[in-house]
Amino acid sequence: MMTSSMLYYANLPLSMPRMLRVRASNTNDNVPIKKMGMSDEECEAAIVAGNIPEAPPAPPKPAAPAGTPVVPSLSLSRRPRRNRRSPSLRAAFQETSLSPANLVYPLFIHEGEEDTPIGAMPGCYRLGWRHGLVEEVSKARDVGVNSIVLFPKVPDALKTSTGDEAYNENGLVPRTIRLLKDKYPDLIIYTDVALDPYSSDGHDGIVREDGVIMNDETVHQLCKQAVAQARAGADVVSPSDMMDGRVGAIREALDAEGFQHVSIMSYTAKYASSFYGPFREALDSNPRFGDKKTYQMNPANYREALIETHEDESEGADILLVKPGLPYLDIIRLLRDNSPLPIAAYQVSGEYSMIKAGGVLKMIDEERVMMESLMCLRRAGADIILTYFALQAARCLCGEKR
Ligand code: PBG
């Protein structure tokens, strides 16, 4: 699955041409060097005797354009540009790398047979769980992306105020997990734990008549949802709901049912962000009223992310996630520096759509901006990145042209 060229490219700077090959010597190697038939001793003796063989002269100093000012050189002890002056040096000193193994591919699924395009997310589809999804997973695996996360579009008729469809063992997500695990036993399947796709109110939790999102009652439902997903074969359950205490409760529920091996990736610092707009269109999961500000974090807050980090750590989370990604690089770095746990970043739908739109309008180079944004998330401290670009970026890392 992983080719050596993929690993090679993964460590190169983004600007390096794909065709580049490391060669033992440079451009003159098609001029045959005539062997003189001398032994090593004879060669050494010739040198000692002052018979120095010819080698090409050092290249002349390249000319500056006419009009270049003649100035004394600055007396600098450090010239950082020295380490950036050639592709090989830049590759040697590159601090961060990006590989398909770092990527998790979020996929939208529905009950239909056809794949329906998502208007606000060019290139993304609601995939038919039995056909389109299986093909997409196979394409991703071909380029080294072996981790996915599933988001279901649930029929309106199955949505209720308590979101009970979330733990239907024969619901869309558990059914899909079983199908995928049957075809690809080694595929890593992440699931989303939250009520919004199943809630007639479009909220991540149960809404009381006065509009309050009920915490502990919601956590009770989330535990049942996580167990149903684990029973179907999920590898990592990911609570994205932001209720208090859900990580510990889910850990206990999983363990009680014998799912000690199932990991929890907690959406630790999930902000009440407008960058989720296209996603809510994709799932038709816009809150019917109000917003998510009583459970998702205030985008103005930084230190508060440490409270969530400490809670999730002590409740037994295996992976901590920050969401959105690029506008929240400082939060990724904060978690990275304050926890030994692996860190995930979610490059969300709005971030994806902005890069796509800029590319379509020819305002930016889509592929380069995509790769740079992913590299920056890694540099900020993300081990893994959830991104709708996973397949496209992995193809790029493999040197495949689209
Ligand atoms: C909901 C959920 C959301 C996303 C992932 N899980 C939306 C929300 O919180 O409203 C957003 C992902 C994206 O925008 O790409 N539990």
Automatic annotation (TrEMBL):
Residues covered by region (Disordered): 51-91
Any one Pfam family match given in the protein's UniProt record, by short name: ALAD
Enzyme Commission code: 4.2.1.24
Superkingdom, natural source: Eukaryota
GO molecular function: porphobilinogen synthase activity; zinc ion binding
Pathway stated in the Swiss-Prot or TrEMBL entry: Porphyrin-containing compound metabolism; protoporphyrin-IX biosynthesis; coproporphyrinogen-III from 5-aminolevulinate: step 1/4
Location of the protein in the cell: Plastid, Chloroplast
Ranges annotated as biased composition (Basic residues): 78-87
Substrates-to-products reaction catalysed: 2 5-aminolevulinate = porphobilinogen + 2 H2O + H(+)
Low complexity bias spans: 64-77
CDD domains: ALAD_PBGS_aspartate_rich (cd04823)
GO biological process, one term: heme biosynthetic process
Entry-linked SMART domains: ALAD
GO cellular component, one term: cytosol
Cofactor requirements of the protein: Mg(2+)
SUPFAM superfamilies the UniProt entry points to: Aldolase
Ranges of compositional bias, category Pro residues: 54-63
Keywords, in A-Z order: Allosteric enzyme, Chlorophyll biosynthesis, Chloroplast, Heme biosynthesis, Lyase, Magnesium, Metal-binding, Plastid, Porphyrin biosynthesis, Transit peptide
Oligomer status and interactors: Homooctamer.
Role description: Catalyzes an early step in the biosynthesis of tetrapyrroles. Binds two molecules of 5-aminolevulinate per subunit, each at a distinct site, and catalyzes their condensation to form porphobilinogen.
Family membership noted in the UniProt record: Belongs to the ALAD family.
Record-given protein name: Delta-aminolevulinic acid dehydratase
Source organism of this protein record: Olea europaea subsp. europaea
